[in-house]
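Handout, section B. The chain below has 272 residues.
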Amino acid sequence: MFEIILFSLVALCAAIILACKYVVKAVPQEGGELSYLAEHSVEPWYLDYARSFFPVLLIVFLLRGFIAEPFRIPSGSMLPTLKVGDFILVNKYAYGVRLPILHNKVLDVEQPARGDIMVFRYPRDNQTHYIKRVIGLPGDIIEYRDKQLIINGEIMPRDPAGSYIPFSEKGRERESLRFTQTVRTGGPESAQVRFSILLDNFRRERPLQIRVPEGHYFMMGDNRDNSMDSRSWGFVPHQNIVGKAFFVWFHWNSHSGGGIDLSRIGAQVTAH
Protein backbone atom coordinates (compact mmCIF):
# COMPACT_ATOMS: atom_id res chain seq x y z
CA MET A 1 0.00 0.00 0.00
CA PHE A 2 2.79 2.45 0.88
CA GLU A 3 4.52 1.97 -2.48
CA ILE A 4 1.23 2.73 -4.26
CA ILE A 5 0.83 5.93 -2.25
CA LEU A 6 4.45 6.87 -2.93
CA PHE A 7 4.08 6.21 -6.65
CA SER A 8 0.87 8.27 -6.72
CA LEU A 9 2.67 11.23 -5.13
CA VAL A 10 5.52 10.96 -7.65
CA ALA A 11 3.02 10.85 -10.52
CA LEU A 12 1.05 13.80 -9.09
CA CYS A 13 4.15 15.99 -8.77
CA ALA A 14 5.25 15.07 -12.30
CA ALA A 15 1.78 15.84 -13.67
CA ILE A 16 1.71 19.27 -12.00
CA ILE A 17 5.16 20.17 -13.33
CA LEU A 18 4.36 19.04 -16.88
CA ALA A 19 0.92 20.66 -16.89
CA CYS A 20 2.29 24.01 -15.77
CA LYS A 21 5.12 23.87 -18.30
CA TYR A 22 3.37 22.62 -21.42
CA VAL A 23 -0.36 23.19 -20.94
CA VAL A 24 -1.16 26.16 -18.73
CA LYS A 25 1.52 28.47 -20.17
CA ALA A 26 0.94 27.43 -23.76
CA VAL A 27 -2.82 27.95 -23.88
CA PRO A 28 -4.00 31.60 -24.06
CA GLN A 29 -7.25 32.57 -22.38
CA GLU A 30 -10.34 33.80 -24.25
CA GLY A 31 -9.69 36.95 -26.26
CA GLY A 32 -6.08 35.96 -26.89
CA GLU A 33 -4.88 37.00 -23.43
CA LEU A 34 -2.03 35.09 -21.88
CA SER A 35 -2.70 32.84 -18.94
CA TYR A 36 -1.99 33.85 -15.37
CA LEU A 37 1.29 31.90 -15.29
CA ALA A 38 2.54 33.64 -18.42
CA GLU A 39 1.77 37.13 -17.06
CA HIS A 40 3.22 36.66 -13.60
CA SER A 41 6.73 35.64 -12.67
CA VAL A 42 5.64 34.33 -9.26
CA GLU A 43 4.86 30.64 -9.56
CA PRO A 44 1.82 29.19 -7.78
CA TRP A 45 2.50 27.42 -4.49
CA TYR A 46 1.54 23.99 -5.76
CA LEU A 47 4.13 24.16 -8.57
CA ASP A 48 6.83 25.18 -6.12
CA TYR A 49 5.93 22.26 -3.84
CA ALA A 50 5.81 19.82 -6.76
CA ARG A 51 9.29 20.85 -7.95
CA SER A 52 10.68 20.56 -4.42
CA PHE A 53 9.20 17.17 -3.56
CA PHE A 54 9.42 15.42 -6.93
CA PRO A 55 13.16 14.52 -6.89
CA VAL A 56 13.02 13.44 -3.24
CA LEU A 57 9.95 11.26 -3.74
CA LEU A 58 11.39 9.79 -6.94
CA ILE A 59 14.68 8.84 -5.27
CA VAL A 60 12.86 7.26 -2.31
CA PHE A 61 10.57 5.35 -4.67
CA LEU A 62 13.48 3.99 -6.72
CA LEU A 63 15.56 3.09 -3.66
CA ARG A 64 12.68 1.27 -1.97
CA GLY A 65 11.57 -0.38 -5.17
CA PHE A 66 14.90 -1.64 -6.49
CA ILE A 67 17.64 -1.38 -3.85
CA ALA A 68 16.60 -1.71 -0.20
CA GLU A 69 13.43 -1.34 1.85
CA PRO A 70 13.08 -0.93 5.64
CA PHE A 71 10.78 -3.09 7.73
CA ARG A 72 9.98 -3.27 11.45
CA ILE A 73 9.84 -6.59 13.32
CA PRO A 74 6.42 -6.71 15.07
CA SER A 75 6.56 -10.15 16.73
CA GLY A 76 8.92 -12.63 18.35
CA SER A 77 8.58 -15.38 15.74
CA MET A 78 12.20 -14.88 14.61
CA LEU A 79 13.80 -14.79 18.05
CA PRO A 80 16.63 -14.94 18.94
CA THR A 81 17.90 -13.69 15.56
CA LEU A 82 15.46 -10.80 15.22
CA LYS A 83 13.88 -9.07 18.19
CA VAL A 84 10.62 -7.19 18.52
CA GLY A 85 11.40 -3.56 17.71
CA ASP A 86 14.23 -4.27 15.27
CA PHE A 87 14.18 -2.15 12.13
CA ILE A 88 15.81 -4.10 9.32
CA LEU A 89 16.94 -3.45 5.77
CA VAL A 90 15.88 -5.84 3.03
CA ASN A 91 17.88 -6.31 -0.17
CA LYS A 92 15.29 -5.94 -2.94
CA TYR A 93 17.46 -7.25 -5.80
CA ALA A 94 19.01 -10.30 -4.06
CA TYR A 95 16.58 -12.70 -5.74
CA GLY A 96 16.04 -10.73 -8.93
CA VAL A 97 14.99 -7.26 -10.02
CA ARG A 98 11.23 -6.76 -9.84
CA LEU A 99 9.03 -3.90 -10.95
CA PRO A 100 7.52 -1.97 -8.05
CA ILE A 101 3.76 -2.39 -7.55
CA LEU A 102 3.46 -5.00 -10.33
CA HIS A 103 6.13 -7.24 -8.74
CA ASN A 104 7.00 -8.81 -12.11
CA LYS A 105 10.60 -10.06 -12.30
CA VAL A 106 12.58 -8.43 -15.10
CA LEU A 107 16.07 -9.73 -14.26
CA ASP A 108 17.27 -12.90 -12.52
CA VAL A 109 20.07 -12.56 -9.97
CA GLU A 110 20.13 -15.63 -7.70
CA GLN A 111 17.72 -18.07 -6.10
CA PRO A 112 16.85 -18.24 -2.38
CA ALA A 113 19.05 -20.61 -0.37
CA ARG A 114 18.25 -22.52 2.78
CA GLY A 115 19.08 -20.41 5.80
CA ASP A 116 18.24 -17.08 4.14
CA ILE A 117 15.96 -14.74 6.08
CA MET A 118 13.39 -13.65 3.55
CA VAL A 119 10.63 -11.05 3.51
CA PHE A 120 7.61 -12.02 1.44
CA ARG A 121 3.98 -11.17 0.91
CA TYR A 122 1.73 -13.42 2.98
CA PRO A 123 0.09 -15.90 0.56
CA ARG A 124 -3.35 -15.35 2.09
CA ASP A 125 -3.10 -11.54 2.04
CA ASN A 126 -0.69 -9.90 -0.39
CA GLN A 127 -0.93 -6.59 1.49
CA THR A 128 0.74 -8.14 4.55
CA HIS A 129 4.49 -8.75 4.75
CA TYR A 130 5.98 -11.67 6.69
CA ILE A 131 9.57 -12.48 7.55
CA LYS A 132 10.77 -16.06 8.07
CA ARG A 133 13.75 -18.26 7.30
CA VAL A 134 13.97 -20.33 4.11
CA ILE A 135 13.96 -24.02 5.10
CA GLY A 136 12.55 -25.88 2.10
CA LEU A 137 13.44 -25.32 -1.57
CA PRO A 138 11.34 -26.42 -4.57
CA GLY A 139 11.24 -30.22 -4.69
CA ASP A 140 12.43 -30.74 -1.09
CA ILE A 141 10.75 -33.24 1.21
CA ILE A 142 10.39 -31.59 4.61
CA GLU A 143 9.80 -33.57 7.80
CA TYR A 144 9.34 -32.08 11.24
CA ARG A 145 8.72 -34.41 14.16
CA ASP A 146 9.68 -34.31 17.82
CA LYS A 147 11.04 -30.82 17.11
CA GLN A 148 13.60 -32.31 14.75
CA LEU A 149 14.02 -30.94 11.21
CA ILE A 150 14.65 -33.47 8.42
CA ILE A 151 15.27 -32.37 4.83
CA ASN A 152 15.28 -34.96 2.04
CA GLY A 153 15.81 -37.73 4.58
CA GLU A 154 18.81 -36.04 6.22
CA ILE A 155 18.52 -34.94 9.85
CA MET A 156 19.63 -31.34 10.23
CA PRO A 157 22.01 -31.21 13.23
CA ARG A 158 21.24 -28.97 16.17
CA ASP A 159 23.62 -28.31 19.06
CA PRO A 160 22.47 -27.15 22.52
CA ALA A 161 23.41 -23.55 23.24
CA GLY A 162 21.91 -22.97 26.68
CA SER A 163 18.65 -21.34 27.70
CA TYR A 164 17.08 -18.13 26.48
CA ILE A 165 14.56 -15.93 28.28
CA PRO A 166 12.88 -13.53 25.86
CA PHE A 167 9.97 -11.26 26.64
CA SER A 168 6.65 -12.56 25.40
CA GLU A 169 4.26 -10.44 23.36
CA LYS A 170 2.59 -9.29 26.60
CA GLY A 171 5.83 -8.56 28.41
CA ARG A 172 5.95 -11.76 30.48
CA GLU A 173 9.18 -13.73 30.60
CA ARG A 174 9.33 -17.38 29.57
CA GLU A 175 12.30 -19.67 29.23
CA SER A 176 13.11 -21.45 25.99
CA LEU A 177 15.94 -23.77 25.01
CA ARG A 178 18.43 -22.38 22.54
CA PHE A 179 20.07 -24.48 19.82
CA THR A 180 22.40 -23.88 16.91
CA GLN A 181 20.80 -25.35 13.78
CA THR A 182 22.86 -26.43 10.77
CA VAL A 183 21.40 -26.71 7.26
CA ARG A 184 22.78 -27.02 3.75
CA THR A 185 22.15 -24.05 1.48
CA GLY A 186 21.31 -26.26 -1.49
CA GLY A 187 22.15 -29.81 -2.63
CA PRO A 188 24.00 -32.57 -0.71
CA GLU A 189 27.42 -31.08 -1.52
CA SER A 190 26.49 -27.44 -0.90
CA ALA A 191 27.83 -25.25 1.88
CA GLN A 192 26.49 -25.48 5.41
CA VAL A 193 25.22 -22.51 7.40
CA ARG A 194 24.39 -22.20 11.09
CA PHE A 195 21.86 -20.08 12.94
CA SER A 196 20.16 -19.98 16.33
CA ILE A 197 16.70 -21.37 17.04
CA LEU A 198 14.47 -21.57 20.12
CA LEU A 199 12.46 -24.59 21.25
CA ASP A 200 9.78 -24.76 23.94
CA ASN A 201 9.53 -28.10 25.74
CA PHE A 202 6.01 -27.35 26.91
CA ARG A 203 4.52 -27.45 23.42
CA ARG A 204 3.82 -30.45 21.24
CA GLU A 205 2.69 -30.60 17.64
CA ARG A 206 1.67 -33.18 15.08
CA PRO A 207 4.43 -34.69 12.90
CA LEU A 208 4.74 -33.14 9.45
CA GLN A 209 5.94 -34.60 6.16
CA ILE A 210 5.41 -32.66 2.96
CA ARG A 211 6.94 -32.05 -0.46
CA VAL A 212 7.61 -28.47 -1.54
CA PRO A 213 6.05 -27.87 -4.98
CA GLU A 214 8.00 -26.28 -7.82
CA GLY A 215 8.15 -22.50 -7.66
CA HIS A 216 7.45 -22.46 -3.91
CA TYR A 217 9.36 -22.30 -0.62
CA PHE A 218 8.84 -23.69 2.88
CA MET A 219 9.39 -21.06 5.56
CA MET A 220 9.87 -21.38 9.32
CA GLY A 221 10.43 -18.96 12.18
CA ASP A 222 13.54 -19.37 14.34
CA ASN A 223 11.28 -19.31 17.41
CA ARG A 224 9.98 -22.69 16.33
CA ASP A 225 7.17 -23.15 18.86
CA ASN A 226 5.96 -19.55 18.68
CA SER A 227 5.77 -18.97 14.94
CA MET A 228 2.92 -19.12 12.44
CA ASP A 229 4.68 -20.25 9.28
CA SER A 230 4.51 -22.78 6.43
CA ARG A 231 3.59 -25.49 8.93
CA SER A 232 0.21 -23.83 9.37
CA TRP A 233 -0.55 -21.76 6.23
CA GLY A 234 1.45 -23.49 3.49
CA PHE A 235 4.09 -22.55 0.95
CA VAL A 236 5.31 -19.19 -0.35
CA PRO A 237 5.11 -18.75 -4.16
CA HIS A 238 8.23 -17.36 -5.83
CA GLN A 239 6.28 -14.32 -7.07
CA ASN A 240 5.53 -13.34 -3.45
CA ILE A 241 9.20 -12.78 -2.62
CA VAL A 242 10.10 -9.24 -1.53
CA GLY A 243 13.77 -9.56 -0.65
CA LYS A 244 16.52 -10.82 1.65
CA ALA A 245 17.00 -9.34 5.13
CA PHE A 246 20.61 -8.48 5.90
CA PHE A 247 21.00 -5.69 8.46
CA VAL A 248 19.50 -4.16 11.62
CA TRP A 249 19.75 -0.39 11.30
CA PHE A 250 17.69 0.66 14.36
CA HIS A 251 15.99 -0.79 17.43
CA TRP A 252 13.27 0.64 19.64
CA ASN A 253 12.85 -1.24 22.93
CA SER A 254 9.15 -1.03 23.73
CA HIS A 255 9.26 -3.53 26.64
CA SER A 256 11.20 -1.20 28.93
CA GLY A 257 8.96 1.79 28.28
CA GLY A 258 10.67 2.85 25.09
CA GLY A 259 14.22 3.61 24.19
CA ILE A 260 16.95 2.99 21.65
CA ASP A 261 18.95 -0.20 22.08
CA LEU A 262 22.35 0.69 20.65
CA SER A 263 23.60 -2.89 20.97
CA ARG A 264 21.20 -4.01 18.23
CA ILE A 265 22.19 -1.37 15.69
CA GLY A 266 24.42 -2.85 13.02
CA ALA A 267 23.58 -6.46 13.84
CA GLN A 268 24.00 -8.82 10.89
CA VAL A 269 21.14 -11.27 10.40
CA THR A 270 22.57 -13.54 7.71
CA ALA A 271 23.37 -17.17 8.55
CA HIS A 272 27.05 -18.09 8.61
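Note. Helices lie at 2-24, 36-39, 45-67, 230-233. Compare this with the example in section A.
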